[in-house]
Design goal:
By secondary structure, the protein is α+β, with helices and mostly antiparallel strands. The protein folds into three domains: about 80 residues, Rossmann fold (3-Layer(aba) Sandwich), CATH 3.40.50; about 140 residues, ATP-grasp fold, B domain (D-amino Acid Aminotransferase, Chain A, domain 1, 2-Layer Sandwich); about 60 residues, Dna Ligase, domain 1 (2-Layer Sandwich), CATH 3.30.1490. It has eleven helices and 13 strands. Strands 8, 9, 10, 11, 12 and 13 form a six-stranded antiparallel sheet that branches. A four-stranded antiparallel sheet has the order 4-7-5-6, with helices on one face. A hairpin with a 2-residue loop joins strand 8 and strand 9. Helix 1 crosses helix 11. The longest helix has 17 residues. It is globular, with a radius of gyration of 19 Å. It starts with 5 loop residues before the first strand and ends with a helix.
Length: about 300
């Protein structure tokens, strides 16, 4: 048994994904404790600096989702306090949290991702529809768990979707809708785990489908030909490393009806709940949850 020292599991926080973060943190802490790791669970709040300075923590396991957890802020604090932490660093976390910047970086390196338009109060919504076609999807640039995202079927719906997204972020964009199937690739220590296919009865893989609905299907093995699955894993690793991400994470993408791959987003602190995809992919690889949690903890730097 490795002596991990005193480990802080950071969870909760004040983002819109707080409830999911609490579930992830509790699951992670339970797995670590069961393996003899000295764990302190911290619900991140305004006293987080004092909490982290109150004990001699040797590592931090970040189970914070969304703003404050995936955007580089907690990472910067931990670096200032010289506490090694799991997952990506400050810059990579900030970039990956920003779906718009992520997309622009991918496009700059000619990685495939759906076409888009930035939306503002003064946008010509008719021109957006003409460029991207219908349906399309509207997203806040800096929010996770599909919060604030809407599928749009008409120009009138586009305006309403824009207003909804504005409740979650100041920067909004519309994205081309890809007719096809959604997949995800979990990444652990530079290795792409088996691809998972996502199937939902809803319009898209939204918050309800991710965390509440019991009829969402996760298919692993994913059903792709070996060559295509390998291509997806290779692209996921390329997209992940381009942003400077490290340790662990997840890359989401679509494959359209003609077999083309489209990158969608990166999650640098994916969920670790009973509905979560990284544990599912790891299990398919033969890595049980307890071993997965320890492997992630080992990446802390």
């Amino acid at each position: 048994m490795t002596d991990w020292g005193k480990v802080a599991v950071l969870m909760g926080g004040s983002s819109a994904e707080r409830d999911i973060s609490l579930k992830s943190g509790i699951a992670v802490a339970a797995a670590l404790t069961a393996q003899g790791v000295d764990v302190t669970v911290i619900d991140v709040a305004k006293d987080i600096v004092a909490r982290l300075q109150s004990e001699n923590y040797t590592r931090a396991f970040i189970a914070l989702h969304g703003r404050g957890g995936e955007d580089g802020r907690i990472q910067a604090l931990l670096e200032f306090l010289e506490i090694p932490y799991t997952g990506s660093g400050v810059a990579a976390s900030a970039l990956a949290m920003d779906k718009l910047l992520t997309k622009q970086l991918w496009l700059a390196e000619q990685l495939p991702t759906p076409d888009y338009c930035i939306l503002q109060d003064t946008s010509d919504f008719a021109a957006v529809v003409e460029k991207l076609g219908l349906p399309l999807i509207v997203k806040p640039a800096e929010e996770g768990s599909s919060l604030g995202i809407s599928r749009v079927e008409s120009e009138q719906e586009l305006k309403a979707a824009y207003k909804k997204a504005k409740q979650y972020a100041s920067r909004i964009f519309a994205e081309q809708w890809i007719e096809g199937t959604e997949y995800t690739v979990a990444i652990l220590e530079g290795e792409a785990l088996p691809v998972i296919q996502l199937q939902t009865q809803r319009q898209f893989y939204d918050y309800q489908a991710k965390y509440i609905s019991d009829d969402t299907q996760y298919i692993c093995p994913c059903g792709l030909a070996i060559e295509q699955e390998t291509a997806c894993q290779k692209l996921a690793l390329q997209a992940f490393s381009l942003l400077g991400c490290q340790g662990w994470g997840r890359v989401d993408f679509f494959i359209d009806n003609t077999g083309n791959i489209f990158l969608i987003e990166i999650n640098t602190v994916p969920g670790m709940t009973d509905h979560s995809l990284v544990p599912m992919a790891a299990e398919q690889k033969g890595i049980h949850f307890a071993d997965l949690v320890l492997a992630i903890l080992a990446t802390a730097q």
